[in-house]
Amino acid sequence: MSFSSAANECPTRLKMGLLIAPDHIRVMEMGRTQVQINNDEELFIRGYQISLTKEQKELVKEFSLGLRKELPEIVSIAMDSMELGFGSLDTIIKGIAGTDAAKGIQEHFNELKGGLLERFARNGDNFYIAPQGMSELDDFFEEGLTSQVKEVVKGSLRVLLAAMGEAYLRSESVIEGQQVNLDERLELISQEVDRSLKYNADRLSQKAEAFCQRFATLDRAERKLQKQIPSLIKYDILANQDLADN
After folding, report:
1. 182: buried, middle or exposed (CB in 10 Å: 19+, 13-18, 0-12)?
2. What phi and psi, each to the nearest 5 degrees, are found at residue 39?
3. What is the pLDDT of residues 145-162, one digit of tens each?
């Protein structure tokens, strides 16, 4: 089972960005904190602390602990996948290109990493996940990340071939032989990308059903909290797309 193959079974969507730190959780929109939970018990809306009853404090704690349990695991799987993929490719490309050429290639990878890190980020015990549907995660691993990494690799090798072309023009047979060699290496790199990224895509797919069930529980906890504190409705974090479509 995967999120995308079971989109109707896993309709949960994160409507706002979430930053989870050891002592607080921030709900973010357009880079600004809208809601914050401190130490799993203090609630702030746009910087103002909300006075809570005992029952409300229990609901805040339940929801906060639920977010802490689920989201860091998803972020960790995503970040592990990126680090595995980029690490192995970086080593292979440097082996092909040499130290000087690898500097330009590294710049391409840094640009790609920057775009991907807009969706997920991890720094020590701090985790960030951008607004996105759970059904989009498979696409991220199976299509977005893999295809983008491969494109950077191919582009880098084209640059390398162009730089080396003048030297090889002296011997057509050497050029042809080198072209075959680099094509073979490109295929090996593509296979390495697939292996590295598929490992964590499989990890996520294996946990898809459990994630969906636990997010449904979180969504119910959020709705209970919103009934107690109606001002939170404006800052809805989790949404069931099936219910929204009805």
Report:
1. middle
2. 50, 30
3. 666 666 766 666 666 555
Rounded CA-CA distance 163/153 in Å is 15
In the numeric block, which tokens belong to residue 126?
């701090």
Phi, psi for 224 (deg, rounded to 5): -65, -40
Contacts of 119 (CB under 8 A, 6+ apart): 78, 129, 130, 132, 140
What secondary structure does DSSP assign to the chain, as a single string?
--TTTTTTT--EEE-SEEEEETTEEEEEETTEEEEEEETTTEEEETTEEEP--HHHHHHHHHHHHHHHHHHHHHHHHHHHHHHHHHHHHHHHHHHHHHHHHHHHHHHHHHHHHHHHTTTEEEETTEEEE-SEETTHHHHIIIIIIHHHHHHHHHHHHHHHHHHHHHHHTT-HHHHHHHHHHHHHHHHHHHHHHHHHHHHHHHHHHHTHHHHHHHHHHHHHHHHHHHHHSGGGGGG--EEEHHHHH-
- pLDDT tens, 13-31? 889 999 999 999 999 998 8
Number of Cβ atoms within 10 Å of the Cβ of 177: 12
Supply the pTM of this predicted model: 0.72
